From TrEMBL:
Example GO BP: L-phenylalanine biosynthetic process
Keyword annotations of the record: Amino-acid biosynthesis, Aromatic amino acid biosynthesis, Lyase, Phenylalanine biosynthesis
Source species, domain of life: Bacteria
Family annotation (CDD domains): ACT_CM-PDT (cd04905), PBP2_Ct-PDT_like (cd13631)
GO molecular-function term, one example from the UniProt record: prephenate dehydratase activity
Record-annotated Prephenate dehydratase domain positions: 4-179
Designated name of the protein: prephenate dehydratase
Enzyme class: lyase
Enzyme Commission numbers on file: 4.2.1.51
Pathway recorded for this protein: Amino-acid biosynthesis; L-phenylalanine biosynthesis; phenylpyruvate from prephenate: step 1/1
Pfam families (alphabetical): PDT (PF00800)
InterPro entries the UniProt entry points to: ACT-like_dom_sf, ACT_dom, Preph_deHydtase, Preph_deHydtase_CS
Gene Ontology CC entries for this record: cytoplasm
Source organism of this protein record: Rhodophyticola porphyridii
Length: 276
């Protein structure tokens, strides 16, 4: 039986590309929303989930941090995927033919310089892969899509201009999640992700972080976000280098627990080589 990995978006989306690169032997399952991706794994329709958490150009992916703690899933890997934006047109079209380019609202500013230089107007589509499908359906040489080469292959479009993004390091970090945690793996560079809430005492966050500094544990990410729409309930998401069984990490986490009202480890996994 073929194992499946769920992703948000239509076939040809960058999350689909991530599935191809990180899990080439798994069948990719498209889902309309992030909630649907999680539900697919919870129900057994998929074995793993591919979820984007941040992009080097536009930052944190909205809603993901809110969904992770309640999903019941565990991070088992991370994947850094280079996001190349391509101008895709119908067969026979040329760059000079294009007057309008369709893509997701987030993608358009990432190639604004190219569009401006060529006098192309950016048009908003719900999804970059959907834009490719719609352009193929229109069959109009003046309309193109901004999407992945994978989307071009799927919908029969030609690459009119390749890698047109303004920033040459545009990268998205994905988390690969599974119903079961895997704490047995060891690598030279391990990562641990967790969420927590600090106790309502003065300087609680400062004190909670002290254990990582005194034990020499490197924290690569610390982000805060509101819980339940409340301005007073703040939850934190953190990534650290190391394994919970490492003595320095153990001591740091023990100190963290003292100053927190909730601590939930999301997963421990080998760092993607692209992280370095």
């Amino acid at each position: 039986m073929t194992s499946r990995i769920a992703f948000q978006g239509e076939p040809g989306a960058y999350s689909h590309q991530a599935c191809h690169e990180a899990r080439p032997r798994m069948e990719a399952l498209p889902c309309p929303t992030f909630e649907d991706v999680i539900e697919a794994v919870q129900s057994g329709a998929a074995d793993q989930a591919m979820l984007p958490v941040e992009n080097s150009t536009y930052g944190r992916v909205a809603d993901i941090h809110r969904l992770l703690p309640e999903s019941g899933l565990h991070i088992i890997d991370e994947a850094f995927v280079r996001v190349h934006i391509n101008l895709l047109g119908v067969p026979g079209a040329t760059l000079a033919d294009v007057t309008d380019a369709w893509s997701h609202l987030v993608l358009l500013p990432q190639c604004a310089l190219f569009l401006r230089q060529h006098g192309i107007k950016g048009r908003v589509s719900p999804d970059n892969a959907r834009a490719a499908r719609d352009v193929a359906d229109m069959g109009d040489k003046s309309h193109a899509a901004l999407a992945s080469e994978l989307a071009g292959d799927i919908y029969g479009l030609d690459v009119l201009a390749r890698h047109i993004e303004d920033h040459d390091r545009n990268t998205t970090r994905f988390l690969i999640m599974s119903p079961k945690a895997d704490m047995t793996r060891r690598a030279d560079h391990m990562m641990t992700s967790f969420v927590f809430r600090v106790r309502n005492i003065p300087a609680a966050l400062y004190k909670a972080m002290g254990g990582f500094a005194t034990n020499g544990v490197n924290m690569t990410k610390l982000e805060s976000y509101m819980v339940g729409g409340s301005f007073t309930a703040t939850q934190f998401y953190a990534d650290i280098e190391g394994h919970p069984d490492d003595p320095p990490v153990q001591r740091a986490m023990e100190e963290l627990r003292y100053f927190t009202s909730m601590l939930h480890i999301l997963g421990t996994y080998p760092a993607d080589p692209a992280r370095d």
